[in-house]
TrEMBL record, chains A, B, C, D:
Listed InterPro entries: ACT-like_dom_sf (IPR045865), ACT_dom (IPR002912), Formyl-FH4-Hydrolase_C (IPR041729), Formyl_transf_N (IPR002376), Formyl_transf_N_sf (IPR036477), PurU (IPR004810), PurU_ACT (IPR044074)
Gene3D superfamilies: 3.30.70.260, Formyl transferase, N-terminal domain (3.40.50.170)
Family: Belongs to the PurU family.
Entries under HAMAP family matching the protein: PurU
Name of the protein: Formyltetrahydrofolate deformylase
Cross-referenced NCBIfam families: PRK06027.1 (NF004684), PurU (TIGR00655)
Domain ACT as annotated: residue spans: 5-78
Gene that this polypeptide is encoded by: purU
Classification via CDD domains: ACT_F4HF-DF (cd04875), FMT_core_Formyl-FH4-Hydrolase_C (cd08648)
Species of the source: Algoriphagus iocasae
An annotated Gene Ontology molecular function: formyltetrahydrofolate deformylase activity
Amino acid sequence: MNKAILLIQCPDQKGIVAEVSKFLYSYNGNILEIDQHVDEELSLFFMRAAWELDSFSLKKEEISQRFELEVGAKFNMEFKLHFNFPKPRMAIFVSKLSHCLFDILGRHHAGQLEVDIPLVISNHQNLQSVVEAFGIPFYHIPVTAATKVEAETKQLELLRENEVDFVVLARYMQIISADFIKNYPNRIINIHHSFLPAFVGAKPYHAAYERGVKIIGATAHYVTEELDAGPIIEQEVARVRHHNTISDLVQIGQDVEKVTLSKAIKYHLDRKVLAFKNKTVIFY
Amino acid sequence: MNKAILLIQCPDQKGIVAEVSKFLYSYNGNILEIDQHVDEELSLFFMRAAWELDSFSLKKEEISQRFELEVGAKFNMEFKLHFNFPKPRMAIFVSKLSHCLFDILGRHHAGQLEVDIPLVISNHQNLQSVVEAFGIPFYHIPVTAATKVEAETKQLELLRENEVDFVVLARYMQIISADFIKNYPNRIINIHHSFLPAFVGAKPYHAAYERGVKIIGATAHYVTEELDAGPIIEQEVARVRHHNTISDLVQIGQDVEKVTLSKAIKYHLDRKVLAFKNKTVIFY
Amino acid sequence: MNKAILLIQCPDQKGIVAEVSKFLYSYNGNILEIDQHVDEELSLFFMRAAWELDSFSLKKEEISQRFELEVGAKFNMEFKLHFNFPKPRMAIFVSKLSHCLFDILGRHHAGQLEVDIPLVISNHQNLQSVVEAFGIPFYHIPVTAATKVEAETKQLELLRENEVDFVVLARYMQIISADFIKNYPNRIINIHHSFLPAFVGAKPYHAAYERGVKIIGATAHYVTEELDAGPIIEQEVARVRHHNTISDLVQIGQDVEKVTLSKAIKYHLDRKVLAFKNKTVIFY
Amino acid sequence: MNKAILLIQCPDQKGIVAEVSKFLYSYNGNILEIDQHVDEELSLFFMRAAWELDSFSLKKEEISQRFELEVGAKFNMEFKLHFNFPKPRMAIFVSKLSHCLFDILGRHHAGQLEVDIPLVISNHQNLQSVVEAFGIPFYHIPVTAATKVEAETKQLELLRENEVDFVVLARYMQIISADFIKNYPNRIINIHHSFLPAFVGAKPYHAAYERGVKIIGATAHYVTEELDAGPIIEQEVARVRHHNTISDLVQIGQDVEKVTLSKAIKYHLDRKVLAFKNKTVIFY
């Protein structure tokens, strides 16, 4: 089914739901899902509406302009219009660890992710053969302190050539520069291997072990300039015990990481995420 | 804040959200929450809308009739209008086990439950003193096979006298008759001490122990004529291990039961539950 | 590190732990892990002891006999002695669904599973190319009502030729015959896509949807003659909501299935599972 | 059943389990539970053994000395011997919030906690009547910056008079002085209303809301001089969503707090906790 999805943010006011739903109804739209949220503290209104496109009497190309004229301008809305076709294009960045990458490739192969994956980029070569077995081009771009700028330039070129919509860092162990991030605001998803804000930075499983926590976790978030501080999309946890070594924590944690990252990708693909400040509204 | 809450069920059609939100807007209603769900299989539409009453230009008494005229009739809606005042009145039925009862009384005492509790009815006497310490009248109505009809008659009288809106069975170990249930359709909440539909009937912890399950659970549901088969409102689980005895399962389970039941009461009080067939839509 | 692992079952008596630990100490064994459990109901004693083999003064081949003489006979023990080398050999049976298979192959590729996988057997061909990309032989053995006996004969031959120790049914959608099972008692691990004993048999997600449960689950168990009734090794659950379709339940459930199955395989490989009657003791 | 429980810490060496179990067996002890753990990093050995006292051929009073002579001295052990009688004596400190207090009193009333509660101490008066309805003496000791030393002196006097073994801070909103803590090392259990080490200090739910986390938690830990940094006994979490206000987080969190604290009390009472450095070994 062809769907349109509208994501809206604006100052909270009366009548927004009425006007948006009237707009959709007036052009014969069959609403599939409608969700709204008001952040009372900030007096901000958020909304997501999805409707069937086939019976809609506006052309795909006209919708944005008409909506701005008839509804958006009146409420001072920021809005984005998405369609569930063509499929979005996702690049995966990975280093040596395979668990998140394989989980994504497995889901994609099983037809669970409505996304095209035109390429995988890695600063190592060890995962090349499996990626290619899934029929996906693999680019090896080594990164050192000296070559970082150059490497990012190459990466950005590849993303542009491949018309990539968003990037997933599937345990990519390099810090992304502010310049790179600016190209994909709230469109780079990272998996951090701890329950943020506990244990920011490197080696969070070691830190968790030292602190003797009874639960570990993982956090999927949009990448922003401040390290590990971007809007959180999803978090999951798992129980650990005193007899678990650091190596156990790593393995238990990897299961949490891959499930958390895949959920975040799914929410992003379904256009269920609205980011503002360092938070997200997730209409699942 | 004074709120009105509308719960709607009807055949799925285009334009429902538009018409409902237009109605609210036209009388100056400030929508606080709006949720909708379509059961594709049954082509049924469900909706919940909550709005501020103080600025609304219809009187409390007029709303139902106007809504029926302007919206409900057009879409063949079944709807219920609720207000968050006066507080609903809840009766608690309990036998000998105290954990669910105390959990509810504790929350009520802490001001977490927007409900009045005019009475507790029990077929035993052991909990009388604590109930009364919380300032709530306690009625002891013993039940035997011989006196069951008479006991239920007394119970119903007490419920009517106390203008009770709904009943919570907080581990009340008696089967409620079909005649009694008819008086409170989808308004009797029971906690069953297993993860339904596993282990229906009596002694579910014994059955779970025998089967060697690794997870146990509890189920809060509306009571219907068929035992343990009513619409499920909430379920929770807890992990158990081989070294847990039946008595451990009972204790671990009681924590799950009390949290599950209290969540179900909260959803019911917040008018977030729509029951249909043997299922529920819960707009939390 | 080379390890020996002893799994013991016997009638409960005094002095068992003392005798077993004395035996290990007397031959200079460094105990790494020791766990015991008493089933009070059945007066059965269970124990698992793991120790370093390198400094142990008995030869690998002598241990069983000596233990029987010095300890086992005295307490009427059933015991099994395992070593963590050479690696056990595991066969995977799969049908069309890939999620459990890929999860296992991904872990194996990442070096997380101390096991050899000499072959994958399927009644379908769609997963052949990816299995082979992981360097593992793939055998296509179609099964129909008419060819079932013949197919199982072929399967058993392959298992014997490949010296397989145990079999994992990674969503293999065929019922295994009693004759087949007898060859691998408590050595065939199945993943059932529900929280057993709820929803035995086929189409459990459909049944869960119909019943309107709020939590779904998966169960890894040893296969016995009675369908879905074998000893449970591990169970996991996930929360679902009213808006989840059957297809959502399937996807959410698949994440639970793969994690549950992989945990069960890990427990089995680590020799942490003792099965008795239709239950398990898991020393994790 | 009368039980003895031995908790042991010592440098890791060969033969400890053998010697301890031989000791118990030589005096006709029936071992009920035995658990051991080796911290590889620190080369520390931890053990817990529980056995039936009635058939044991040493007198209760002799055990410690004999064990030191025959086993402890040889391995340089620190050990503690406990009995499950008479019941330990627990004091509860509370401020205004009732949820943890009621949860403990409810369990105690239901016979689930093998403990005597000789008194509740609070810096406020609002919970006096319910505490007294449970038949427990209530002491109101206000605390201000000026009276803090004096207040703690009074508290310590009451604890001594009542022969209190350990103290539970059931959301007691005052910082305990180092001098006070020295009287009850690893015998003061606090519930912190966040998933430590995230959100130390005051107002953790506000901080969690600001950060936009998707999961909140609670941490029960022994109190040490460094605030919120003592050995963690238990942690639990709950999922939250964007629509949850700070007040929702508080309510959802309170359920987590009370369950977490009660679990920690249970582990402590069952002598299942061994604390070392800022960590715990929990033999559950």
